[in-house]
Design brief:
This protein has 62 residues and is an alpha+beta fold. The chain contains 1 helix and 4 strands, in the order αββββ. The protein has one domain. The protein binds zinc ion.
Length: 62
């Protein structure tokens, strides 16, 4: 699992994070297991990934 996180970190570093994303918190509480979810970008969509239970929360705009 640590390898996956490392890959996500590397991929995020390569991307130019848009200014608006900086307003999003890097860590939030997981709604499923109450662990810590880390912010990551997947297909240019911001979301959170939980290491504890592999829960992925995508941030979408309405
Ligand atoms: Zn979790």
């Amino acid at each position: 699992m640590s390898d996956l996180v490392t890959n996500l970190e590397k991929r995020r570093e390569k991307k130019n994070v848009k200014k608006e994303y900086l307003l999003i918190e890097n860590e939030i509480d997981c709604p499923r297991c109450y662990g810590i979810m880390m912010l990551h970008l997947e297909f240019d969509l911001p979301g959170y990934f939980c290491e504890e239970c592999d829960f992925i929360l995508h941030l979408t705009r309405y």
